[in-house]
Batch of 4 targets.
Target 1
Amino acid sequence: MRKISGNKLLVKALREEGVDTIFGYPGACTIDISDELYKQDYTKVILPRQEVALVHEADAYARSTGKVGVCLVTSGPGATNLVTGLATAYYDSVPLVCFTGQVARHLIGNDAFQEVDIVGITRSITKYGVTVRDRKDLGRIIKEAFYIARTGRLGPVLIDLPKDVMGELGDAEYPSEVNIRGYKPNTMAHVGQLKRAIKMLNKAKRPLFLVGGGVNIANAREEFAELVRITNVPTITTIMGRGALPTNHPMYIGNLGMHGAYACNMAVSECDLLFSIGTRFNDRITGKLHSFAPKAQIIHIDIDTAAISKNVQVDVPIVADARDAITRMLEYVEPCDTEKWMNQILAWKEEHPLTMKEKPIMTPKDIIDTMNRIFDEAIIITDVGQHQMFVSQFAEITEKKKLLMSGGLGTMGYGLPGAIGAKIGNPDTPVISISGDGGMQMNIQELATAVLEELPIISCIFNNSNLGMVRQWQKLFYGKRYSMTCLRSGAACRGRCGEVECPPYTPDFIKLAESYGAKGIRVTKKEEIEPAFREAMKSTKTPYIIEFEIDPEDLVYPMIQPGGTLQDLIMDC
């Protein structure tokens, strides 16, 4: 029987699993794997500039393509640099398989150079993690890793590869089937529970669909749109669920929660049936739990058993894949009489429309409105902060426009690497990242990756010279004590804010872009927004940075007061 090394078997496994792209950074414990990757031509190897960004790139590649994202990093700091990205993927249910190098087995536990217990470190933020202790188990473990990542509630899996195990000769066969005792994820909806839920839906006077990221993950947008068409039930979303129903759909109301629309928050507070699909009911959408949907019976469909009744007690639990559940519902649902209820919701929208005050100077909404108008198709990736909330409020997300962001963990620095991963996975689709000036600097080194991979992404920077979301809280709730949020602050002005001239902003994003080989445009006026986008859209190989100078006093409204309920909304100041 022919025998091959573990390194060769790994590369063979990648091909068998259809992995066309791997995001990797080399090191001593993975150099032999790198050598084997060099000898093949099926799996493209992307070399980012840092492992923290690398895993975000694999994450966005997975979110935007529906494939499993794959990472390869070395031991020690290479592995620990994955932690934030693994947590990001875990909270947002993104399928990743991450391979980490490890020192030889006889050195494990001896504080060897670049040795860490990465499986132990990441146990709570991965679906599964394992160190391969025996060469004969390698093929089975890799096969299981891909199966676990892409089934049930999707998520990241980590495989730790000791260098000596990977060098051993062993069986050349890669398994074709998986049989994991104790891991049998359920995706099929219980028909009896579905019929019970539909009966409640038909009886409701004020029904409401609440849709989370699970519908987008399950690729159930078409099925859900058909469900809404038949039932005439108004729909609200979490920010991760935005796009599950096109934002221009007549039955779509908007986002719920911390910065949700007034009409959405009021609808939840007044509905008599809340039909939730694919959301975890986290604190950002519920406010105080005791006052969440106080008049409603609650139905909850989710693929993760642990998510049901974890935060909000529900009346009808249904454990199922969102697409399967919705498809089955289409066989039984009937039109609901929601005209009176919808008119009430529309009255709330008219009473407090979701908008920003018109200003002579450029606002974030001006930028997003321009994007909505000139891009018919796009993948939009946000960083985390005020700009993220503005995008989730005002960006039109339709059948041809997709929105990606770090939702559950709220990871600054996701935007630029996310755009890179999405563009690699979708080379023919325009990709736009939107970051604040703070988040952009967290992984700005990835401009080198974008330039060398010839990716014509458009990276928008909303530059207000501050860490805007924290500053907003300081303005509203901390007596305008702006501690640690001004990004111009330094030795020249520390302790003398307002007494001395502000230092110039660092860095000059346009010069920095040019130093990397990218292009840069600075926009300061409304009339410059569209020409800047039009210029960037001409590029076929070169990334563009568009820096928008915006007012730090542009705040995100509405906003739930800290510790408040959905009704405790600050509308404006």
Target 2
Amino acid sequence: MQNIKVDNLNIAEKREVISLLNDLNPFISSRFSPDETEALKKAMRNGMQTSVRAHNSKGLPTAILTLRTALCFAQAIEPDHDILLAIGIYPILKSGMTDILAVRREWGEGVAGLLTGMEAVDKFSNKNNAVNQDNFRGLMLALADDIRVIIIMIVRNLVLMRSINHHPDEQWVRDVSFEANFLYAQLAHRLGLYKIKGELEDLSLKYTNREIYTQIAHKLNETKRSREAYIKSFIDPVKNKLEAAGLKFDIKGRTKSISSIWNKMKKQKVDLQGIYDLFAIRVIIDTPREKEKSDCWLAYSIVADMYTANPARMKDWISLPKSNGYESLHATVMGPGSKWVEVQFRTKRMDLVAEKGLAAHWRYKGVKGDSTDQWMNNIRDILETAESGPMQLMKDMKMDLYGKEVFAFTPKGDLFRLASGATVLDFAFQIHTNVGAHCTGAVVNGQHRRITYRINNGDTVEILTSSNQTPKADWLNIVVSTKARNKIKQSLNEEMQHRAELGKELLERRAKNRKIELEEAVLMKLINKAGYKYANEFFADMADEKIDAGKFLSTYTEEINSRTEGPKVSAGEFQIQRHEETNSKSDVLVIGEKSINGLSYKFAKCCAPIYGDDVFGFISSDGTVKIHRSDCPNALNIRTRYPYRIIKADWSGKEGDMLPATLRIIGNDDIGILANITSIISKETGANLRNITVDSNDGMFQGVLVVAVSDLRQLNALLKKLKTVKGVKDIQRL
């Protein structure tokens, strides 16, 4: 691939392209056929010379970033055929020189799938996710769809972070650093890519707090000689003892990352001199798979005989590996000069997994390890059901990724991994949502325990359930896992929705008995006046008899009788009637060829037009102009029978009051789907949910929503978001 020419780069950039191609050539030639190599070379040559921009919008060279990403992936993780292709082709696809169909024909479904995932991620990545919940959730859902895309994006982010030192756009650098630290470093940690995770955190600290980063780097450099001398004095006698025991091994010392040192300084409230474990000794044993555990423990016993071990800081990830595949035995011993030293014992295979993560033994082609697959499902649960903002989502993810773990067993011997501090209730939800929802307690190691009991390592837990048990609000204070918390919230929301329906039926029945016609506008006004933000909460309290329906109807009647604005209006005409006094200059409609003063108009209930709809006017028998949508179901009949009563109507260019739009929605009758729908509407600026009625049958539901919006643009945006809700099959405006 050395003969690719790049005419739109400067001399230094061209030299780097040639150097990168030379470095990539061994990986390409060993994994690509000659025809594939020639086709890739042609695609990259055409892309670099023509349509692909030489530099992106931030002034970074596209070709160099692409080649750096491919090389970084090949060196740091694994030179996988499809992933290297996807990385190389992506900028060509993005430029429009090719499309997914062409990629699928020439390179196969695997490469096309990766490119589709990369496109989905790029729609959301680095778009101020710190404050935009939809962007963050969209980004994470795109990532969670294919773990291979996660690995590509982690490497791409690392290459980007390496390339933006002293970039003039400081705010952009801070945004990229934030995303690198709070998202990609965490994902790298979960996949066991510890070197990448450490570098991302270091670079993020460097770009966001350069002064602290520089201070620590300088102090580490100043103490480098003394630190190396101390490591040598520790290692030399250990080497002799291990060799005498007949072990084959490598032993080395490493200084901890700057970001981890800074975190320790903040946590322990000490300066650099106060951090006793600035470095760690690593013993890497060359031994067959069947002797791995015994040889690691043999090496530990030799070192523990030489130096006093601190049992409180022993970490055994050989007997029970971490969920990302990490295996190692960590010990802290008192070394020469009464200094604590961390020593890690692992085999060459374990070290490879620790260096390259799950990619070291996982073949990418759609095969996922059980723990990874489970983690991805948990991430989807978090993102699809959480009602909190992105910062809380990040906090929840960080807790799940970085938190310490405990291990417990079912009576059948199945092993479950939980976050430290997990309770019986967390354990129940980890088994299954229905088990958690009906949990009443547990038998732990033969003894009855409450749902608040905190699981200890090695516990055997048998969950006790009752069909009469349902989730309670105070359960949210018991659980620590994000999965359990969100499942409890889902259940509570569903229960409140059910109670709200009962409360609304109660009110409507009482109103019918008293021959009162309920108007949506007045009803919502009184609900808000009573201090309720959401109508569901009000109706749920009415079902619980916290609100007396009779007294409320008396208040409602008084409100109706006190109104002086004119004739009554129905829910469909809420806030939309105009009167003769209206000044046409401030009105939202122009009626006739010119604005005609003295005309009152109403919006037709049959089609409920909103600002921005194509509309026409129909002069009714009382002289009021009824405004219809041009696609109104009655439009054809009106135009055919009464063409002489049609009058032109158009919007004046000024937005008026919020108007109701009626939507019909069909979907799967899943737990939480209504909560997700109402949550999206409530978070849409300027939109209000006025009414919702739902019927369900055979696992499907059909509902009618009345949503108040300011204009057609806002309604279309809302419809687009609602269509993305998992389980929604169809949604249309009536």
Target 3
Amino acid sequence: MKFDVLCTLNNRLQRALPYTADGRGDRIVLTVKKEDIPQDVQQIDVRPDAFTAPAGSEGYIACSASCGTGDLLCPFTPRADGEWVFTVPILPLSGLKKDGFCAAAMALSGNLDLSHVVSVEGGVYRLSFRFDYEAPAYEDIVIVIRLLHGGDADYSGMARAYRDEQLARGEVRPLLERMKERPELRHAADTLYIRIRQAWKPVPSPVPEQTVENEPPMHVAVSFERAGELMDAYKRAGVEDADFCLVGWNRKGHDGRYPQLFPVEPDLGGEDGLRALIAHARSLGYSIDCHTNSTDAYRIADTFDEDELIVKRDGTVSQNSAGWSAGNMYHLCAVPGLRRAKEDFPRVAALGFHGLHYIDVISTVWPRACYNPRHPQTRRETAENWLRILRLARETFGGAASEGCFDMYVREMDYGLYQSFNLLGDMPEIAARRVPLWSLVYHGIVLSNPSAETVNYPAKTWKERLKCYEYGGRPAIYVHSAFVSGRKSNWMGDLDILAGTDEQLEKGARQVKRAYDDYQPLKYLQTQFMDRHEQLAPDVYRVTYSGGDSMVFNYAEADYDYDGHVVPAHDYILVKA
């Protein structure tokens, strides 16, 4: 296999770069050394000559795209010339299948600057790999290409190839192995994940730069006492096991005054009320952990320090484009973020929290470089420090959870709240359908819920329910998930599970019990690898697990006959081996 490796410099000149391609059997390793990359690099494009196919031919490009769109399958449909660039991909994995050829491509180094590029030019499709730089390169580019044959020659085989690569180099370990060391993981895999948003200030904030004097009032949705009543209602409904996570227990609620956490919010019941709730949850057989934040900072915090913020290359302070509960959100550099976690986590754990500790947004945010001379960080250094924060959570509380499932963080993660924000909405025009590449790689290694849409699926439609289990989800319930006003919708949906009135509380208990009942016969699959995903018919898909059992999902309007089993419309079946 030959490669074009083309470097674009800041003055827009282009030149070819030296590389090595070490081919041994069906595994080819392409390496571009950091020292061979010019200091004024802007972009590097890597184009394998075999990763092309004529429009109209059989086959496809499988491509891990962003957490906004999920993983995509792009057939070689005739179309006008164009280029589709998938930045910040969930996985550094893509591949191409055509007549007589199938291969997976895995970027193992340099992947924090990676985009997958699908292009059509003159009736020919191409898959290539682009690396964009805002500063000199800080590591080699290493791309492993695996040639796939026979039953491995499809997108499921591409994902298995990357899973094998990750396991072989010790980047990840199976859940079953880790459960022997941490019983918290077994409990998590066997239970629903239930988050309770307790309190928040208006979002978006009417006061961009808040002080104690102009701070907007906080809305209390679920006090500590009310959370105990919620747990009682869920227990009465038959939800025997659950993993609860409190969101907004800290000072002034969710995103109230980060990085400040303490004191425990008095309007929710204060520290005494929180300790009583934790004891009550345990008396019911529930685990209870909480939500903190290690990446964001607001000026109203009594711990705010301008010197701890990320500085961009142009010298300005890095800031979120949206204002949240405490107004303008600034990005905390990973170095002080880690230092703060070392100070805060023991205090949080001392309240009684234990389980899969949830750290907001880390695993759904692409690592940011920092140019603050007090704590400069490359993207890789930021990612490594965020991994240290996740590891510290695991060591302190028993486990680590976060919001997303970006590949660079799975080494230290036990649960991701959603792989993607969008699995049911519109796709890029180049794609024909979505495929669960991430699940095929990491199911049985990291617990996850598939998308923001499948959160609270019992309050939604049959589509969210099917998608949750097609992607191997551990269901996520979020009480009071919708809290944003002045926007078209909340990203987890406007159909919510609530606890404001007694009627809402009891309705929520019935909804959660439906998810609990769905999950009981399926939870054993969490410790197995997802080995194959395939389309059996239009709108009908089969998932096969490493233990041999399979599930068939019918999104069609009519029942489907599967090997003598009836799969009802808008439903699924579990088929034992």
Target 4
Amino acid sequence: MSDAKFELALIDYVIVVVYFIGILAHGLYVSRKNKDSGSEGYFLAGRSLPWYLIGFSLFASNMSGSSFVGLMGGTYANGVVIFNYEWTAAFVLILFAIFILPSYLRARVSTVPEFLERRYDVRSRRTFSAFTILAIMFIDTAGALYAGGLVIANVTGYLNLWTAVAVLALVAGIYTIMGGLAAVVVTDTVQAILLICGAAILFWLGLNEIGGWDQLFTGIPEEKQHLILPANDDFLPWPGLWGVVLLGFYYWTINQFVVQRTLGAGSLKEGQVGAIFAGFLKIPNIFLMILPGLIALKLYPQLETPDLAFPTLAFDLMPIGVRGLIMAALIAAIMSSLDSALNSASTLVTLDFVKPLKPDLSEERLVVIGRITTGICMVIGAIYAPSIAGFESLFGYFQSSLSYVVPPIVVVYVLGLFIPWLNGNGAFWTMIVGLAVGVPLFIFKEITGTWEAIGLPAIHYTIMSSIMMLAAIAMHLAISAWTRRPTDEDIDTLVWSSSEAREIFTTLERPFYADRTLWCGLLVLGMTGMIVWFW
């Protein structure tokens, strides 16, 4: 196979330009339509989102830096074991829909950190909100910009990494600033459909190029063909699977970047069905995002970096014209994560810090502050994004950076939903100590390599996250017990309701095809089938 030719014809550029114009026009339209809807209309789409917009938006927001570029690159380097990050996400979305989302919507919160204040105290809210804002800028926004900039810089002769990042940041920033969440979710839905179509075309062309399905695993190393790997594997040892689930809990249940769509649901059922629908959309990623990485490995075994697997496939196999579609699909994926991240950051700053400090600010002023914050986060993320090139791979950057800092936060949220007597002292100090230990540990072990250089035992970051989880559980329980006080009566409305869950599981909903229990069961069967197939 000859080297990939990163070339776009005039028609390809026309498709991309038309797409850019379309999403900007939509942002302007929504801005004018919702100009009198206030801050709730801007940040939460007036709490009126239907299940299908929620599901597509959840899927599209996730499918960016960690998908087209990250997942294909990760598969190219490590094999189908990457799919563990996808099926566990579907599993976590079921738990989120049934056990966690009802508490959020009962509390009528606008941000996930706001729930922490209602459940614990204001210290916990602001600690987690500040962490989330930083994570959005330096992980979500910067990662998505780097993924898009890397591909665009390699397929055009006009832009380098820095300028490609700047263009993406500018366009995403403009329509998110103008339209808020209402613009984001509708645009995400269009982008999700475009993304699925583009990835399906790429998979089909790739299979034809290698001679069909029967040839897909021929010549692929045995260790790259399985989901479950030995305990001493360098990439994802089987004991580290629980660490993957922990990351999923952070990403899908307490990350404002993702959860904001469900907070804007028109009802509890709309939010739950939307989350389950997003879980179904994750399962086909084995064909759309994972197996194309193996195809790239067969066709181009000597790529300079695994993260070039997607652009090399797309621009070598796609005919002129269809390349523009794939380019638009990539931009769709990048934009979905960018708009979600930027809108979430502005929501957190405005509603968790500005509004509590200045409660008399008008709705119009809050929206203006949210738009200014979006622009600031866009600039910071764009400046930092090119530095991600210093990491071994984009996928590794995402997963390892989160593994050291999110376990204590997940513990605080999840235990708080099920154990009423846990209090703000335990929550606050568990998060503070967790961050104070996790960030230096990440630098010490994953960036500088000092950990192993001084002879400490090699511990995979997914296993390290489980160790930190156990330590956080002990700390939260101990501090809360030591400073225990009478439980607030309002806590009962914020913790998990067994009667509510029992009603969902024991009541047949009409019509039957709208039954949440039925769809959860079908999703579990789909996950199980994929696990058995690629075991």
